[in-house]
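Listing S7. Sequence submitted for prediction.
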Amino acid sequence: MNTGHALRLQDVVKTYNGTTAVDHVSFEVPQGTIYGLLGPNGAGKTSLIRIITTITAADSGHIWLHGQPLNSSHPEQIGYMPEERGLYKKMKVGPQLLYLARLKGLSAKEARQKIQWWLERFECTDWWPKKVEELSKGMQQKIQFIATVVHEPKLLILDEPFSGLDPVNTNLIKDEIRRLRDQGTTIIFSTHRMEQVEEVCEQITLINHGKNMLTGKVADIKQQFKQHLYRIVYNGTLPPLLAQMPQERFRVIEQQAGELLVQVADETIAHELLRLLIDHGLHIRLFQEVLPSLNEIFIRLVQNAE
């Protein structure tokens, strides 16, 4: 097995009562990356995660974690924060974190030290004696995150980790995710919010109806689906020659005062257009290629499939 991959899935299948939730899904998660597992609600993301974490077993297919076939000892190397949070509402924060850390194999002393370090990092040491139900949803989210990472897992799986967080705490968790990645942790970020993935993920797998629709690096995927759109912001008067250019080479998608969105046949035409505008005396303030968002790519894929 390639030890450069933290996780590898090959032709994984899972059915529930005759319904196929995961349909021959294959992908590889490189070591030390933030990997996006994307798709709309009901796409099969949670079913896949439950298989990876050994909560359920696949009906068929193969899974390797750090080069070894997935087995019952691997959950100790995994941190999983489910979308439906699993904290005990009536239990106090400190004892609860200690209990969950001990379940992951930490000694009482080690668990207390690591929990204290995280509480200080999140500036919430005074939460130790509080019951979970006394905390806001955002505060509970921080505690859930600490419980997920306190045993320093090699593979961290976060299912909708920013749900319920305000922008400040969202950025805080994003920073921690990147810091953990930089320390060598492999992170799977599962969400239906495509725009969040573009900020933090380097590679993705996009699934729909249990099938793998797209896998690759985010930058490469955007290049693959680009439509040669360019946004131009300028000062001056457009040359009349633009109206005479053949539509198979150039067309205006949107136009407003001092701004154009155009589509060209290829990059060569884009360079010719830029030279034409400059030669005409326009002051070009912006000439930028517009790449599609992951959400736009997903919609296009679904429409094509249907």
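Caption to Listing S7: primary sequence and predicted structure tokens for the chain studied. The chain has a mean pLDDT of 90. Residues 43 and 208 are 5 Å apart (CA to CA).
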